[in-house]
């Protein structure tokens, strides 16, 4: 993982992270069209807690702006997952982020990837770098993540990240009128268990 601050920004600028195949960069307001194009897919919304369906470019814009502010306020670190080639035309393929609980030095990891890019290890690669960023750059002690029990792909990502299955929360969320069971995974900085591969 290679972390580089934005060249022109102040000390609190959100950095860009380079992984073997991906570029994780701060969101920008003009990502709204790309995010909307990827989220015009009910399967992504169905597997997340908060993404609505149908989606729209306006919803994307209204979601991006608070994420930028949240970084400034130390409440979140959200990155656009991009395929960097060719570098001048990096393509946004998903989003990964940490929602930070500063008093408890912990964060909740969240992610989604556009359907046509699934199954290439991109989410795992992006989330691994985000966890490393959370421990090494943000000084977090614990990172947790939730997935609906009917969404094993996300659980598999968490396993591949070296996270520990900590339990199942019965009927923890209500999506589109239906209560759903949610699994919780966690990882501690002291565990040293962030899987490199
Ligand atoms: C979950 C998600 C982010 C995974 O993205 P991805 O880039 O395909 O993830 P990866 O390729 O890194 O890993 C996916 C793993 O899940 C596995 N998988 C896929 N479908 C599966 C299923 N039905 N059952 C079990 N494992 C499954 C893949 O085989 C792969 O594991 P492997 O490397 O051991 O073969 C993507 O499917 C997505 O965006 N889903 C909708 C939104 C979502 O679920 N977000 C997470 C909310 S908690």
Explain this structure.
The protein has about 200 residues and is α+β, with helices and mostly antiparallel strands. It has helices spanning about 30-40, 40-45, 55-70, 120-135, 150-160, and strands at about 1-5, 15-20, 25, 75-85, 90-100, 105-115, 140-150, 165-175, 180-190. It has a nine-stranded mixed β-sheet, with helices on both faces. The protein is built from five helices and nine strands. Strand 8 and strand 9 (about 180-190) form a beta hairpin. Helix 1 packs across helix 3. The longest helix is centred in the N-terminal third of the chain and has 16 residues, at about 55-70. The chain has a single domain (about 1-140), classed as Aminopeptidase. The radius of gyration is 16 Å and the shape is globular. It binds coenzyme A. The site of coenzyme A has 21 residues, from helix 2, strand 6, helix 4, strand 7 and helix 5.
Radius of gyration: 16 Å
How many domains? The number is: 1
> What share of the residues does DSSP label as strand, in percent?
25-35%
Query: Could you list the spans in which at least 5 consecutive residues all have pLDDT below 50?
Result: 7-11
According to CATH, the homologous superfamily is Gcn5-related N-acetyltransferase (GNAT)
The SSE string, one letter per element, is EEEHHHEEEHEHEE
Instruction: Characterize the main sheet.
Output: 9 strands, mixed
Structural class: alpha+beta
Query: What is the level-2 CATH architecture name?
Result: 3-Layer(aba) Sandwich
CATH topology: Aminopeptidase
Please tell me what the overall shape is: globular
Count of helical stretches? 5
Q: How many beta strands in the DSSP annotation?
A: 9
Helical percent range? 25-40%
Arithmetic mean of pLDDT: 93
> Separation of termini?
12 Å
Strand order of the largest sheet: 1-2-3-4-5-6-7-9-8
């Amino acid at each position: 993982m290679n972390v580089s601050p934005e060249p022109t920004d102040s000390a609190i600028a959100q950095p860009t992270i380079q992984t073997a195949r991906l570029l994780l960069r701060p969101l920008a307001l003009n990502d709204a069209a790309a995010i909307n194009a990827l989220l015009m897919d009910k399967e992504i919304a169905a597997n997340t807690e908060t993404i609505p369906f149908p989606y729209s470019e306006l919803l994307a814009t209204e979601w991006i702006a608070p994420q930028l502010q949240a970084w400034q306020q130390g409440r979140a670190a959200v990155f656009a997952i991009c395929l960097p080639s060719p570098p001048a035309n990096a393509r946004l393929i998903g989003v990964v982020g940490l929602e930070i609980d500063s008093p408890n030095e912990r964060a909740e990891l969240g992610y989604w990837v556009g359907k046509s890019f699934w199954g290439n290890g991109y989410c795992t690669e992006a989330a691994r770098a985000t966890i490393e960023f959370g421990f090494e750059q943000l000084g977090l002690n614990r990172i947790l993540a939730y997935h609906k029990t009917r969404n094993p792909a996300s659980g598999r990502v968490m396993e591949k990240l070296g996270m520990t299955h900590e339990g199942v929360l019965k009927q923890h969320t209500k999506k589109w009128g239906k209560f759903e069971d949610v699994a919780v995974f966690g990882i501690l900085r002291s565990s040293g268990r962030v899987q490199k591969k």
